[in-house]
Design a protein that fits this description.
With 362 residues, the protein is α/β, with parallel strands linked by helices. It contains eleven helices and 13 strands.
């Protein structure tokens, strides 16, 4: 096992913790030295090899696992939060997360095994998914599936991360920046200290989680969880739910602009590699989503269901080559973009359609 550890200077390290069977390869878990001991930012996927890599990485940074003082979680996804329970058990460290993502963790832990499958079936049927896509979910529901869904054992945090607050990390100045979009409670952490390289323009360093990545556009789907009221997603009310529901893409674009205004000297993301010119990356991501929304408006000159819209959108491979589970993610992303268009008054549901089709306005 090779452990990839990078010393970013000034008491900041990163540990590349592998994500099994995932093209992302690894999560960059950051270690921040404080006067009370090191603090981790994220933990990595819950897998034996990932755990061994994390432990070896902490050792390579010059610490024991028992030295850890706390764990800051940027968001609840399993490649970030997965090992949190093991870290807490082994070290006694506290765990902190934004309240909105803590609520997601709590709902996932408390949900009945079949509840998520019921929710997914209802959502996909309302989106216009074909029967051959729904059949495996119906079979899993009928045979008691859903008991091994990821996240059911995720750790509940001990404390919150309050937006705008300076965190209680003795000897360091770290401010929480709430950046919803990828998840409702995603946070970036701004290290408000001079960059070790005084020649780097900008101020401080930003631990950006999945919000700002150098070469990847993070997934923006819907926030809804299985207990968010399935009735709002049946065919008769889907247009209304799109208009009145949350707006993850709008949240993401607003959050991007907020991070751009920080002008950090360097961004330390959870995937790929550290980079500078946060403002340039923010502008590129905003332009990407504006272009995508324009393409969707063009597609909606012909009325389409959410599923048909997802089929027609541009992905990193043709629709017929997208794996089954990834199609569900694609549909959620299509619906998040459609919801943005509806909120902007650029699209609307076609009255009387079931499943609901949408068309461009104006």
């Amino acid at each position: 096992m090779t452990t990839q550890v990078t010393d970013h200077k000034g008491g900041v390290w990163s540990i590349a913790v592998p994500i099994p069977d995932n093209p992302l390869g690894h999560t960059l878990v950051h270690l921040l030295e404080t006067d009370r001991g090191p603090v981790l930012i994220d933990t990595g996927w819950d897998d034996p090899d990932s755990w061994d890599t994390l432990v070896a990485g902490v050792t390579a940074c010059g610490f024991d696992l028992t030295d850890l003082h706390g764990v800051l979680i940027t968001h609840h996804h399993p490649d970030h939060h997965g090992l949190s329970a093991k870290v807490r058990e082994a070290s006694g460290a506290w765990l902190a997360m934004h309240a909105a993502d803590t609520a997601v963790v709590r709902r996932t832990r408390e949900a009945e095994p079949g509840q998520w499958l019921d929710y997914l079936l209802t959502k996909l049927a309302a989106a216009g998914a074909p029967d051959d896509h729904l059949a495996p979910l119906r079979k899993a529901r009928a045979t008691g599936g859903g008991r091994k869904l990821p996240g059911r054992r995720a750790a509940l945090p001990d404390r919150g991360i309050d937006p705008g607050a300076l965190l209680d990390l003795p000897g360091r100045r770290v401010r929480a920046i709430w950046t919803p979009g990828h998840t409702p409670g995603h946070v970036c952490l701004h290290l408000e200290e001079e960059h070790p390289s005084a020649r780097t323009p900008g101020f401080g360093r930003l631990f950006s989680g999945d919000h700002l990545l150098p070469g990847i556009t993070p997934h923006i789907g819907l926030y809804e969880a299985p207990d968010d009221g399935l009735g709002a997603h049946d065919g008769a009310h889907e247009g209304e739910s799109l208009r009145e529901g949350t707006d993850p893409l709008g949240d993401y674009l607003d959050s991007l602009e907020r991070v751009g205004r920080l002008s950090p000297a360097e961004v330390l993301p959870a995937h790929q590699h550290a980079f500078t010119d946060a403002g340039g990356r923010v502008r590129a991501l905003i332009a990407h989503h504006e272009e995508r929304l324009a393409r969707l408006r063009a597609l909606l000159q012909e009325p389409r269901t959410v599923w048909q819209l997802a089929e027609a959108m541009e992905w990193n491979r043709p629709w017929e080559q997208i794996p089954y589970g990834s199609r569900n993610i694609a549909v959620s992303e299509a619906e998040a973009h459609l919801r943005r268009l509806v909120k902007l008054g650029h699209a609307e549901g076609v009255p009387g359609s079931d499943p609901v089709t949408y068309r461009a306005v104006g």
